[in-house]
Design goal:
This protein is an alpha+beta fold. The protein has one domain: YefM-like fold (3-Layer(aba) Sandwich), CATH 3.40.1620. It is 46% helix and 18% strand. The protein is built from three helices and three strands. It has a three-stranded mixed β-sheet. The N and C termini lie far apart (61 Å).
């Protein structure tokens, strides 16, 4: 069985009936949308989504830093006055 990563769940059928009411009842909590009792998706607050995007961006930038660390050996030292 697939893990449901939310305490608040709703079926797709229930979601179709009253999406606005569902968002109101969830009060900003993550909502797992179930299809045949399996997670089909999640509804997250704008704040949680923004945080997820920032974490993914930080991870991607961290990967770039790690890749570029290897090229430091090829770097040439230049004094600021030489620029």
């Amino acid at each position: 069985m697939e893990q449901i990563l939310s305490e608040f769940t709703v079926s797709i059928t229930e979601l179709r009936k009253a999406p606005g009411e569902l968002l109101k009842q969830s009060a900003g909590q993550t909502v797992a949308i179930l299809n045949h009792n399996k997670p089909a998706g999640y509804i997250v607050s704008p704040e949680a989504y923004r945080t997820m995007l920032e974490v993914m961006e930080d991870k991607a930038l961290g990967n770039i830093v790690e890749q570029r660390k290897g090229s430091l050996r090829k770097a040439k030292v230049v004094k600021l006055d030489e620029l």
